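Note to self: keep these together.
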Amino acid sequence: MKRVHLTIDEQTWRAARKLAAERDTSVSALVREALSHLTRNNESRERARKEILQMIASFEGKVGRMSSREERNGRN
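Structure:
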């Protein structure tokens, strides 16, 4: 495991220690959890972005006319 040195203000440190105690864990575990959450979300967003770009590319500019609300609901 890699080590990271952080500098945070006293108020944040106290709040983090209180939260860690409430969750029966450590401040280090809270930081690991937060960083893990951030990286997972970023990876998911990047995958979704790539999928959307692939879908758009597959349209090849031939999206066509969107049907009206009446047509979609069978009210011609």
